[in-house]
């Protein structure tokens, strides 16, 4: 278990073991590494971040992850693997499931909802990007990038 405080001062717990929290994940975050670069979306309000979002009624976490990645980036993914859960102890606590996935196909991007495009970034570009979303700058994201690097050979 890895614990840190986010930019808003909320305690966040990150676990690389499933079902460690008393709250079921209702949000997803997806980390996709393709040809040495990370798939990121450009959110109008928050900036550059990994694709993700909320579970819709009747969806599984995996279905939500695939849908969110496509809606935000026009990238079709497959071979989803659960990677981590993190629990944000905010005013209303919530849990987010983190997945990794593989690129199947990339369609032309059509502007959707809150995103204005996508960008592929190396790990160094990602860590140093000037327009990162608040959660992409926290210690939990650094820890997840570290863990992904360690497990990438297994995948």
Task: Summarize the model shown.
This protein is an alpha+beta fold. Helices cover 21% and strands 41% of the residues.
Radius of gyration: 15 Å
Mean pLDDT level: 90
Strand element count: 9
How many domains is the backbone divided into? Answer: 1
The H-level CATH homologous superfamily, spelled out, is Nucleoside Triphosphate Pyrophosphohydrolase
Which band does the percent of strand residues land in?
Answer: 35-45%
Overall spatial form? globular
Element-by-element helix/strand order: EEEEEEHEEEHH
| Parts with pLDDT < 50 across at least 5 consecutive residues | none
Described by strand count, sense and barrel closure, the largest sheet is: 9 strands, mixed
Output the CATH topology: Nucleoside Triphosphate Pyrophosphohydrolase
CATH classification, class level: Alpha Beta
User: What's the helix count?
Assistant: 3
Broad structural category: alpha+beta
Distance between the termini: 22 Å
Helical content stands at: 10-25%
Q: So, CATH architecture?
A: Alpha-Beta Complex
């Amino acid at each position: 278990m890895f614990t840190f405080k986010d930019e808003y001062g909320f305690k966040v717990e990150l676990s690389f073991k499933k079902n460690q929290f008393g709250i079921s994940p209702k949000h997803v975050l997806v980390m996709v590494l393709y040809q040495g670069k990370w798939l990121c979306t450009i959110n109008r309000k928050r900036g550059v971040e990994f694709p993700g979002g909320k579970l819709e009624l009747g969806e599984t976490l995996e279905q939500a992850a695939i849908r969110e990645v496509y809606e935000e980036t026009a990238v079709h993914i497959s071979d989803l693997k659960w990677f981590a859960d993190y629990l944000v102890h905010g005013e209303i606590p919530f849990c987010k499931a983190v997945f990794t996935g593989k690129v199947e196909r990339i369609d032309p991007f059509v502007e959707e909802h809150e995103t204005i495009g996508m960008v592929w970034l190396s790990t160094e570009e990602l860590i140093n990007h000037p327009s990162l979303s608040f959660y992409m700058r926290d210690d939990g994201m650094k820890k997840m990038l570290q863990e992904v690097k360690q497990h990438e050979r297994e995948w």
